Amino acid sequence: MATAPPTDREHAPAGQVRRSRTAEIVCAERALETFRAEGRRVIEDPYARVFLGARSHRFLTGGPLRAAATRAAFDRLYPGYLAVVLLRHREFEQELTRALADGIGQVVLLGAGYDTTALRRDLAGATLFEVDAPPTQADKRAVLAQHGLTDRSTRYVPCDFERDSLPQRLLEHGFDPQARSLVAWWGVSFFLTEPAVRRTLADVAALTAPGSRLLFDYLDRSVVDGTTPYPGARRAAAAVARRGEPYLFGLGRGEAPELLAGFAFEVESEASMRELAGRLPGGFPYSTDDFFGVVAARRTGR
What we know:
The protein has about 300 residues and is α/β, with parallel strands linked by helices. Helix content is about 40%, strand content about 15%.
């Protein structure tokens, strides 16, 4: 697992043709954390290991001692990336709780990968739309069936983000553009060109009703242009480039409000991994090199 940093999608010029290895890496990191002692875990994801198809991932998550050694090795090689996966996940859980309490009835995961929200959470009657490329989605559904797992209130929306129309795909699967929604767009923007990022934001804006919420993450621009001082980010950028999915888009801290304002989203919060780690009671057990941000925004109007 340490040969490739956690990303969330796998691209191909002709469309994604195989399940995402990188989505599985993210899932493996959630599984690793679940082996920590109860009460000390940053996140809880008891289903994550079910989706690990690679023999190496299953070996590295094969027990508490092995998982602890793997976490330590990965954090040394790619400092800051465990923080990205775990703290981003924790932030989503908290935002989801707030959204459901506020009566939001639709939750959209763009690039859902092997997300286990529907297995772990009571969605209080909300509909979950999992949007992802067909090969990864088909693999996930096959694993669910194999293990007899039921994912409540989920609609699967196959969508190749490089080729298909996101609005068309969601509307075909019953998405209601008049209802308020929570949209999480994690781990994708930095693999897209700026025009593609803007096109996706325009799609989300066109689909969502005022009062909807958007969760969005970004890499610092210095990681994309190679000037970052953080060694883990440099190694990650080199690794994903070798694999044919280079980082293409980044933002500077404080630039998200201007970007999102053009699509009628008002930023309500923006945080680095260090800031999110600082909110944890008892501290955060991994490195928090500061090259990544998460944003929560509210849809203001049409």
